[in-house]
Design goal:
The complex is a heterotrimer of chains A (407), B (418) and C (481).
Chain A lengths: L4 H9 L4 E2 L2 E2 L4 H13 L4 E4 L24 E4 L6 E5 L4 E5 L4 H9 L3 E2 L12 H7 L12 H4 E8 L4 E5 L23 E9 L1 E2 L3 E8 L2 H12 L9 E5 L1 H6 L7 E8 L1 H13 L9 H9 L7 E4 L2 H16 L4 E7 L4 E7 L5 H13 L3 E3 L9 H10 L19
Parallel strand pairs in A: 2-4, 3-4
Antiparallel strand pairs in A: 1-2, 5-6, 6-10, 7-11, 8-9, 8-10, 12-14, 13-14, 13-16, 15-17, 15-18, 16-17
Helix pairs in contact in A: 1-2, 6-10
Chain B lengths: L1 H5 L5 H9 L12 H6 L6 H12 L8 H9 L6 H5 L6 H12 L5 H12 L4 H17 L6 H8 L24 E3 L4 H5 L2 H12 L4 E2 L9 H5 L3 H14 L6 E3 L2 H14 L7 H10 E3 H7 L12 E5 L3 H4 L7 H7 L4 E4 L14 H4 L1 H16 L5 E4 L2 H13 L6 E3 H7 L4
Parallel strand pairs in B: 1-2, 1-3, 3-4, 5-6, 5-7, 7-8
Chain C lengths: L9 H11 L4 E2 L2 H6 L8 E2 L4 E3 L4 H14 L3 E4 L16 E4 L6 E5 L4 E4 L5 H8 L4 E2 L12 H7 L6 H4 L6 E7 L5 E5 L10 H5 L8 E8 L1 E2 L3 E9 L2 H13 L6 E6 H11 L9 E9 L1 H17 L4 E4 L3 H12 L1 H6 L4 E4 L9 H14 L4 E6 L4 E8 L4 H20 L18 H4 L2 H14 L19 E2 L9
Helix pairs in contact in C: 1-3, 8-10, 8-13, 13-14
Classes of the chains: A alpha+beta (407), B alpha/beta (418), C alpha+beta (481).
Chain lengths: 407, 418, 481
């Protein structure tokens, strides 16, 4: 060998695009050349978006931090930020993976459209980043997550080959759905260059309400809202503990946060119904309330996967000792998705506490994902990783804190 | 062999076309009680149609019969699959053709049964005697019966048989106005009140019932069993007995279905009777259907509130498309709440002589049916076919459930406002 | 790996009987014959044996036995698939899940159910109806097809336009992996971080493992439903109306286009009262709260009229609605009565190009001198053209197949796909290279090899390449719903 990665990247993209172990392509082809260069030079690399999911809270730095490995190059995807195609009749568009949620939604809103699905911190989070992290974005109803809006994508796999998955049709079962490989896998298999997305019209009206409730009443209230099943179902159903609720300016004891969307007639009815249930409207502008929730500063958040009823029970059993460790735990539970973000203010949870949380959640039948701790992947996943990242240049496979075989 | 070839009532080309109507979609599977019981597609309608092609298809070799015997024999003939089939496959018809070619199932038990169906059933008095003897034997002398026939003995109805009576019905009537009743065979002997109730309801609805004396068994059970020549004789006798009748009212779903469709086919090549059989089919009505048509003349008295679980006979739902009529009649009775089991359209396992021929499967299917009723509270089980009535009655008693079981007409007649 | 089908050797039979019992292992001629095809009846593949396990443990032991002895196998639900996905291509053991039909758990607060794979789709919806919930995916075969099969094929259905196909309704699966070990994909929550094996598994046509338990989402049953029948002079008008509705922010629960040929067939078979001189009809169903419908009803009417509907009827009762859907769902049965044979396709085009493909279907019919009746899940752009032919006329068979090929190639030209809900299976493997490049196919192969290293789990499906064909049997007929 051999040229090093830097030389190759400069040759392909020009000096301006290459920084200190970071390269910022602007197009599909230049992105591919970057990966090709990493592969040829056997340079470890990782893709990143806007830092919306950065565990270090570094949203703006030009020199992003690599996960654990100082020699790892960063492929900064924020340059691929345009809407590439738009098919209004189909309500489908193709966008660069580096576009942020806010930029995409603002552009779409001019045409009365939106992408269903959202993200914590939509200002910084790119679609590529949210997809790679498996971020369901607090909209947990079936078909509401970003995962379910992706009809197709183009990616570069770890071996440098460009892969096309899916198509621009809304229904397609041809072949293995390679798009799923890149969902939730934290860039372990490659990087997505662009997405084909299903869009929808912005609902005519929406209404947010926070029903004050402490933990004890949460299950009752939950059952009341969900039993018998109502055909008019809030699109967002979150439960916030006292700390998280207060941080938002919501009720002191914690809140059931509900956001409904639909036709104005339906939302009016919903507004009346929640008023009768002593609901406190968070803000006149529904969008503001929603923004407040989705922008919760959830750094170092543990991601807990437990369905609603088990989660509330788990929290009841465990909040005592978690609070007793000198930190203030914040919990935002997405009742529709069956997941929750748990984080601590002002200082993050220590490793021992994380392990203990993982153990109790495991016992309750769920999983905990953490930015720092991970178990070892299964043999099938290791084979998959070898097939897609033959030179082992990409970050490791993300796994829960406790794997199926640990403890 | 001569009889088997003779059994064909329709050309191979036509049968082939019917077989080919099946597009193999499999929508029938979940409607089939034997598939639900076994989970085995060999015991599902789609599989059976594949096998039928080996018996009645255009290129079928008759010796392929052994190949499919078991699967075909295990079919209840409930025809639920026909109800759900999007392609309109005439499953019931194909089944009867296939059974006709295969002949009655082999084995001594089956031979005995076929003999009973063919020679005892047609004569109500013989049947009554045999039934009384059977009931006596089961109670007092079951140990003397060879083991292989004991299960059949156990499958006999739990009710005592009675001597057939005419309940004062006239032997003839005015063909242009009166209603001739077909009293049936087993029904007449085991549930004599049905004939009485039918007469009362027909009268209440403004009709004049009578019962031709020469009537016997219509031959439906022999026909289901593959005894075509006997079935043809019974059909001929029945047509003769009801010659001139302007309206035939039948209180048994199995018999009304048989008169409407099978009898004309069986007699299609009988020059003396084919036209009359067609005519008779046209004037035959199931009692439920007939009463429903005249329901505005029926008045029912107020009785105690009662929850009635209605079990629809397959020969109504699937063979004749009679589905809502019984429920609507029941709903007319003050104080009645009509309820149904889960999946009411599924067969109870009685299925003509099936419960005698294959008691093990029949009981398992009945158990499933009774289980599907467990979630529902009811005071009374009502149905409209003697087979279902007797078999469900037996099943409930075996489980120690004392809920009364009766024919729809028995219940309705009891609630008539006189 | 290719081997001709043959009955089981005595030792194999003994082993399997030891695992499953005598009444669950079948290698007789009758079973091998009846299990030789599914809803896709153009090809037949005879299995070596059929086994019907009663428990997940038995099923797992059968797979382990297959792995130990190098015997290929394939799982089968109710055999209602339309691409031969469950057939044992090249021989092997057919593992039926029909006896695994327990609903293990229903949790109404978390709105999920845990079911065994042999539970019938409609059976689950009926079992939870009293809670005001349902399992949303509703393939037209829902009265018979199993949830395990829906999982394997990522099944669609008329009402997936609004509620989504199977994928978003599956939360987790316990899977017997090809090596015989159990794995849990997903869980009881919306998939989040971590490799989305569940997403890869849904729609992998049973080639990456056999689900022995599934956790599925339940969704509220709509409070109100309104169903419209709009009559159009031309198919093109009807097709344009579809985009018109979408443009007005209406997302119908279902939107079905029935063309003139199909309309006639349905009318002749069932006398539903469709106008025979119409070019096409559109069935539009909207659902939601009563207030939602108050808003949507007039909009739907307006748009349909605006796009040239000469008549818009609304079903006035539940019975009338059922009646209308019966007409739609029985369309294939009806056209089956018109012709000795027919072949159905399952192409997809972008919704806005439905008018294009409608024109192309008409051209194909003309060019190849065949009759084609079509129903379209119009909101999804998923077309089911039904090409009529008589197998006894070789020339007709050739013309019909040529027409099918034309239509599917046209779907690809229009940026579509050869299959929207039936799967590639053994039927459409040759279309894969037209749809995907060599790198995509190589990656799919790598993916399968990584997750299915044994080569025994439903082999030879999906991906093109040297692999055995079924015994082509045009004598059968194919139906798609």
């Amino acid at each position: 060998m051999t040229i090093d990665a830097r030389e190759g990247l400069v040759a392909h993209l020009g000096l301006a695009a290459v920084g200190e172990r970071v390269v910022r392509p602007k197009h599909r082809e230049s992105s591919r050349l970057c990966v090709e260069t990493f592969v040829e030079t056997r340079t470890p690399w990782w893709p990143r978006g806007g830092g919306g999911g950065d565990k270090e809270g570094d949203r703006t730095a030009t020199k992003p931090l690599a996960p654990s490995d100082p020699d790892r190059w960063c492929l900064d995807m924020r340059g691929l930020d345009s809407i590439l195609d738009y098919w209004p009749d189909d309500l489908v568009c193709r966008v660069g993976a580096g576009i942020t949620f806010d930029n995409l939604q603002t552009t779409l809103a001019r045409r009365g459209l939106r992408l269903r699905g959202s993200s914590l911190r939509p200002r910084d989070t790119t679609l590529g980043g949210a997809y790679a992290r498996g971020d369901a974005g607090l909209r947990g109803a079936p078909g509401d997550s970003l995962r379910d809006q992706v009809l197709g994508l183009v990616a570069v796999a770890g071996g440098g080959e460009v892969v096309k998955a899916g198509a621009r049709v809304v229904k397609n079962v041809a072949g293995y759905d390679l798009a799923r490989l890149f969902h939730g896998s934290h860039g372990a298999f490659g990087v997505v260059l662009d997405f084909v997305l299903r869009l929808e019209a912005i609902p005519g009206a929406s209404h947010c309400v926070a029903l004050p409730t402490n933990f004890d009443a949460a299950l009752d209230l939950l059952s009341k809202w969900r039993r018998p099943a109502r055909s008019f179902d809030p699109a967002v159903q979150l439960w916030l503990n006292a700390t998280a609720s207060r941080a938002l300016g919501g009720p002191e004891q914690g809140a059931l946060f509900l956001m409904a969307e639909g036709w104005p007639e339906s939302i009016d009815a919903w507004r009346e119904a929640t008023a009768r249930a002593q609901g406190v409207t968070l803000a006149n502008e529904a969008a503001q309330a929603w923004n407040a929730v989705r922008d919760l500063d959830a750094n170092h958040a543990l991601w807990i996967q437990l369905p609603a009823s088990r989660l509330v029970r788990w929290w009841g059993d465990n909040q005592g000792w978690i609070s007793g460790r000198g930190s203030q735990p914040n919990l935002v539970a997405d009742l529709l998705a069956g997941s929750a973000r748990l984080w601590s203010t002002p200082s993050p949870f220590d490793g021992e506490l994380v392990a203990e949380v993982a153990r109790t959640v495991r016992e309750a039948g769920g999983w905990v994902w953490s930015p720092t701790a991970a178990s070892s992947p299964s043999p099938a996943l290791i084979r998959l990783k070898r097939a897609l990242d033959p030179h082992g240049l990409l970050p490791p496979i993300p796994t829960p804190v406790l794997g199926p075989t640990d403890g | 062999m001569v009889e088997r070839l003779n059994a064909q009532t329709i050309s191979s080309d036509a049968l082939d076309a019917q077989l080919r109507a099946c597009v193999h979609c499999g929508l029938c599977l979940n409607s089939c009680p034997t598939y639900l019981l076994t989970g085995d597609e060999v015991h599902g309608p789609r599989g059976r149609l594949v096998l039928m092609a080996n018996v009645v298809g255009k290129d079928a070799a008759l010796d392929a019969g052994d190949f499919s015997r078991e699967s075909i024999d295990a079919c209840l003939g409930c025809r639920n699959c026909e109800t759900v089939c999007p392609s309109g496959v005439s499953y019931g018809h194909l089944l009867e053709e296939t059974r006709a070619r295969l002949g009655p199932a082999p084995g001594q038990t089956n031979a005995l049964l076929a003999w009973v169906l063919d020679h005892v059933l047609a004569h109500p008095r013989r049947l009554a005697l045999a039934a009384m003897l059977g009931g006596f034997t089961r109670r007092w002398a079951a140990g003397l019966v060879p083991a292989r026939w004991r299960s059949m003995l156990q499958a006999l109805p739990a009710r005592p048989a009675t001597w057939p009576r005419r309940h004062g019905l006239a032997a003839s009537g005015d063909p242009s106005h009166d209603q001739a009743l077909l009293l049936g065979c087993a029904q007449w002997v085991y549930t004599p009140e049905v004939a009485r109730a039918t007469a009362a309801l027909v009268t209440a609805a403004g009709g004049i019932p009578y019962a031709p004396t020469s009537q016997g068994c219509c031959g439906a059970l022999s026909h289901h069993n593959g005894s075509v020549s006997v079935a043809r004789e019974r059909a001929a006798d029945t047509v003769d007995a009801f010659a001139q009748a302007g309206c035939v009212v039948v209180p048994s779903a199995g018999c009304s279905a048989h008169l409407k469709t099978a009898v004309p086919e069986l007699l299609a090549n009988d020059p003396a009777r084919s036209a009359e059989a067609q005519r008779l089919a046209g004037v035959t009505a199931d009692v439920v259907e007939w009463l429903h048509g005249r329901r505005d003349r029926l008045r029912f008295r107020v009785g105690d509130p009662v929850r009635v679980l209605y079990h629809p006979p397959c020969h109504h739902s699937h063979a004749q498309g009679i589905r809502n009529e019984p429920l609507e009649l029941l709903a007319m009775v003050p104080g009645v709440t009509v309820v149904q089991a889960d999946r009411p359209e599924l067969c109870c396992g009685s299925a003509g002589s099936y419960s005698l021929q294959r008691p093990r499967e029949a009981r398992a299917i009945r158990d499933a049916k009774l289980e599907s009723m467990e979630q529902t509270r009811f005071d009374l089980l009502v149905t409209a076919n003697p087979g279902c009535e007797l078999f469900l009655h037996q099943g409930l008693r075996e489980q120690g459930v004392q809920v009364p079981v009766m024919h729809l007409v028995t219940f309705l007649a009891d609630r008539l406002d006189s | 790996m290719t081997r001709p089908s043959s009955p089981l050797p005595a030792s194999a039979r003994r082993d399997l009987v030891a695992i499953l019992g005598e009444d669950a292992v079948f290698d007789d001629a009758v079973h091998r014959k009846i299990y030789d095809s599914d809803g896709y009846a153009l090809d037949g593949v005879t299995p070596d044996a059929v086994v019907l396990p009663r428990t997940a443990v038995q099923l797992q032991q059968v797979v382990k036995w297959c792995v130990r002895h190098g015997v290929p196998y394939a799982a089968r639900g109710a055999g209602t698939g339309l691409s031969g996905g469950c057939l044992t291509l090249g021989g092997g053991i057919q593992i039926g899940t029909s006896r695994l039909r327990r609903i293990v758990e229903v949790n109404e607060v978390d709105r999920l159910a845990v079911v065994e794979p042999g539970v019938v789709n409609l059976q689950l919806s009926q079992a939870v109806a009293h809670l005001g919930l349902q399992f949303a995916p509703d393939p037209s075969s829902q009265a018979a097809c199993t949830i395990g099969g829906n999982f394997a094929e990522n099944s669609g259905g008329p009402h997936t336009l609004k509620h989504g196909v199977t994928l978003p309704h599956i939360l987790g699966a316990t899977v017997v992996q090809p090596d015989g070990e159990l794995a849990v994909w997903g869980g009881r929550s919306q998939p989040g971080p971590g490799v989305d094996l569940l997403g890869l598994g849904v729609g992998s046509e049973g080639t990456l493992g056999i689900a022995v338990e599934l956790t599925v989402r339940l969704v509220p049953t709509p409070e109100s439903v309104a169903t419209f029948l709009a009559v159009f002079e031309t198919e093109a008008d009807a097709a344009h109306a579809v985009s018109g509705l979408i443009a007005r922010a209406i997302v119908p629960a279902a939107m079905e286009l029935i063309d003139r040929v199909m309309l006639r067939a349905v009318e002749e078979a069932f006398s539903f009262g469709f106008p025979l001189d119409a070019g096409a009809v559109l069935i539009v169903e909207v659902d939601g709260s009563a207030r939602d419908l108050k808003h949507e009803r007039p909009v739907v009417r307006d748009v349909l009229n605006e796009f040239g509907a000469r008549e818009v009827r609304e079903a006035s009762s539940a019975e009338e609605r059922t009646h209308l859907w019966r007409a739609r769902k029985h369309a294939f049965g009806a056209i089956g009565r018109m012709s000795p044979n027919y072949a159905t396709q399952d192409g997809v085009v972008p919704r806005g190009r439905v008018p294009h493909i409608v024109a192309s279907i008409a051209q194909a019919a003309k060019r190849h001198d065949v009759v084609i009746g079509t129903v379209i899940h119009a909101g999804d752009g998923n077309i089911h053209p039904c090409v009529l032919f008589d197998e006894r006329d070789d020339a007709q068979v050739d013309r019909a197949l040529a027409a099918c090929k034309d239509i599917l190639e046209r779907c690809l030209e229009l940026d579509g796909s050869p299959t929207g809900e039936h799967g590639i299976g053994m039927e459409k493997r040759e279309f894969m290279p037209l749809l995907f490049g060599p790198a995509d196919l190589a990656l799919m192969t790598d993916l399968r090899d990584a997750l299915e290293p044994t080569g025994l789990c439903n082999p030879h499906k999906i991906l093109p390449g040297a692999s055995p064909c079924g015994e082509l049997r045009v004598a059968g007929r194919q139906v798609a719903l």
